[in-house]
Each structure stands twice: as structure tokens, then as C-alpha cells.
Amino acid sequence: MSTDDKNRAIAAAILPLVGGAGNITSVAHCMTRLRLGLRDRSLVRDEALKALPSVMGVVEDDTYQIVLGPGTVARVTPEFEALVAEAPKPAASADELAAQGAALKEARKAKNATPFKLFLRKIANIFVPLIPALIGCGIIAGLNGLLVNLGWLPGVTPALAAIASGFMALIAVFVGYNTAKEFGGTPILGGAVAAIIVYAGVAKIEVFGQALSPGQGGVLGALGAAVLAVYVEKWCRRWVPESLDVLVTPTLTVLVSGLVTVFGLMFVAGEVSQAIGDFANWLLENAGAGAGLLLGGLFLPLVMLGLHQALIPIHTTLIEQQGYTVLLPILAMAGAGQVGAAMAVYLKLPRNGSIRRTIKSALPAGFLGVGEPLIYGVSLPLGRPFVTACVGGAAGGAFVGLFSMLGDKVGSTAIGPSGWALFPLLDGNKGLGATIAIYAGGLLVGYLVGFVATYFWGFSRELIEEFDVDTDAGAGTAPVAAGNTPPPAVGTPEPEPAKV
């Protein structure tokens, strides 16, 4: 029997003795124990479990813990999870059936996803959990900068600076942890390898004739280091004897991937990170208006295709390097164009109560940068208004980009929010007042151009005839133009929303 067959046999022997797949709510493992969340503790057959040759004992705590020993548990757990996932599920309640339907929809989307999109989804899963900390620390940094400029609370501002900067100083560790988790490795080992990048002692190491700098390579280096650690760990799990696994696997994982990180990845990732920052600055300084036009105009289509996730590491790299990302305020103009387009649709369809109610309920969220209800419930189903919304975003992006060419950079200290919600996170090189004024001007341009473009060019005569009808007299929902993508329930966003 091969090692894989042996581990699967152990998992298969355990599963019925803990009540079957339907009794399992969670599966995890520590160094020696398989930890299970159970629906009904009374279904577990303790004595039969203890009698299994592979089981060293059981422990009952907040989870039900089956002691399998070091090495073995790391190999049995994935097999156990697979058996739980493959097992038929019991009859579900109405709510569970609805949840299953949503899951099936997501499964269909996943089936049609390309490898590139799946990779981008992994990247998003690594960085999205960091956004709350980026937002919180970004706002605190902005508040601290304001207090410093005003000369207020000099005894408090150093503490605020430490609070705002602590997370960014160690962001590589969090990226490494999440990367290993997302790619199927042990998260803490990914964090341990990534921690090398921010360790002050790397300054004593020379690579290619240059001394390394703590933090060199940043989040990109941490990402690469953690991915390498996952592959080393998986190799070790396959070839290292189970009796030595607990000692050898973590040691080799950290040592091998750590040496590669120090003598290769940090230097390469540092060069790439620097190139990203230099290119972003060069682009906005020399072609800001044109770059803003393209970025602001194309961001909504990128969101629809899921390709906007590729920008997350770039934003994070710029924030890590410069303290803010100069790209996000430009991309946020796409949401302004969407809001302007929605207001024009409201006026152009005075008889369509369904669409008008959707717009009225979704506009407040749209102003705050949450554009999905307007996109999926209004502009995208109509077709042409989606295009004119992109025109508004392009105009707002060109406005902000133009000022970058003139030397007034507008940036965001965090990613996630846009619209009016981005104001507390704004930063730039010419003072907060100028930065806020430029960003606000871009929003106004986006609103205005999105409105005008949609009002005058967003509707054909046929579209008006089809949609400007009294929907309240019928089913209460708007018809869908032929050839256009049908919306979900009016005002309801699709899964995996993207803030624009």
C-alpha cells in the first residue's frame, strides 16, 4: 500500500466513527491532532476510535481532537477533508438549499474560469484580508499628519506615528502568512520565511556586491518567498519519513526557502518593486492625462472581467514604497462616471418605476464608492449607459492625471474605499488641501461627463421605447434589451463585488 493510500485508509476509518460527513462542521490540525468541529457529539464512537491502530488517543475540548502523531496528522487531514467534501449531504432546509444554489452558481463560474483568473483570485485572497488594517492605519497616518502640520498634540503624534506605521513595517510577514495559507502550505512557515525580509540583520549581508536593506523586495519578495516555502514543504511532506517530519520538514522549509530569499528573491523583488514605483511615477509625470484617461475609462471593464485583482499587489507595493498609491484615486473616477450615468438614466426613464427605485436606493452607496448595484442593476443591463459611464470615468481620470503631470500627485494611503469614502485616506506631495481639491474636482468631472454622455448619447430611440414603460403596472421589473446581459434581482449585486 502506498503512503497516500495508507493515509486515505486512516481517514476513511475515522470518518464513520465521528458520525459521518454530515456531522462535521470544521476540519483542522495542529502538530499532532486532527481537530474536528461536530454537529452532534453523541454520534461519536470514542472506544472504536481509540481502538484504531493509527489513533493514539482522543481529547475533547472546544473541538474534538484525535491524536495521530506528528507527520501523520499533516498527511491524513487533507485526505479526511477530501472524504468529507465528497460525501453525499443530508436533506437540507430551505435556507440551506438557497445557500447550495448560490454555491452551485459559484461552482459554474469557477468551472469556466481561466487559470489566469484563478491565479488572480488567489492574489486577491492574499491581499484582501489586509485591507481593514491598511484602511485603519492609513486613516491614523492621515490624522497624525494633520496634527503635525497644525502643531497640535506634540506629545501624542509620535505614538500615532508608531501605531500607523507598525503594520506597514511588518506587512511582508502577513503577506507571507496569507500566501502560504492560500497555496496550501503551513501559514506560519510562510510568515517565518517572509519575516526574513524585514529583519534588520539582513543589512549585514551582501548580494551581488550590494548590502541588502531591511524590507528590500517588500510584499512581492514576501509573496515569492512564501510560495517557494509551500513547494519545499510539500516536497518534504512527500519524501521525509513520518517519524522525522515534525523536525525535518519545518527546518528544511525555512532553511532552503530562506537562503533563496536572502541570496536571490530579495534582490530581484527589490528591483521589480523599484521598477513599478519608477514606472508609475514616470507615467503620471509624463503622460498623466492620457494615462488617467485610459485607467479611468477601462477600470469598469477590468472589474467585469475580474482583471482588476492584478492591481492589488501594485497598489500595496506603491503604498509600501511611497506611503500612498497614485493609481487608486484615478481608478476611483470610474465610480464617479457610473454615478453620473445613473442620474442621467433616472431622468431619461421617467415612467420606469423599477429602475428609478433601484437608482434611488443605490445612489448613496454609489457616492461612497460601492458601484455594484448601479452597474449590475442599471447600466450594464441597458448596455450603452455602461459605455458612457466609462466615458465619465475616463474624463475624471484624465483630470486627476493632468495634475500629476503638473506636479500635484494625488494618492491613497490604503486600498478598498473609493468615492467619497476615499477622502480620509488621501495624501499627496503638495499638502492635504490641494490633494482634496484635485480629487474632488475629478469626482465632479466624472459625475458631469458621465451624466452628459449618458443623457445625450446613452440611449437609442429603440432603447427608450423598450425601457421607458410603466413597469409598476406589470411584473415590477424592467425588461432586458436583446443582446444585453440580464441583471440579477434589481438592485442586487453579483457575488465578489469590486468597489469602484
TrEMBL record:
- Compartment list: Cell membrane
Q: Does the keyword Transmembrane apply?
A: yes
Domain named PTS EIIB type-1: which ranges?
8-90
Q: Does the keyword Methyltransferase apply?
A: no
Keywords assigned: Cell membrane, Kinase, Membrane, Phosphotransferase system, Sugar transport, Transferase, Transmembrane, Transmembrane helix, Transport
Which residue ranges run through the membrane? 126-147, 159-177, 184-202, 214-232, 244-269, 289-312, 324-347, 359-379, 386-406, 436-457
Instruction: Give the residue ranges for region: Disordered.
Output: 475-500
Query: According to its UniProt record, what is one Pfam family this protein matches?
Result: PTS_EIIB
Q: Where is the PTS EIIC type-1 domain?
A: 121-473
The family database entries (PROSITE patterns) matched by this protein are listed as: PTS_EIIB_TYPE_1, PTS_EIIB_TYPE_1_CYS, PTS_EIIC_TYPE_1
> Where along the chain is the active site annotated?
30 (phosphocysteine intermediate)
Q: Which CDD domains match?
A: PTS_IIB_glc
The record describes its membrane topology as: Multi-pass membrane protein
Q: What is this protein called?
A: PTS transporter subunit EIIC
UniProt organism field: Streptomyces omiyaensis
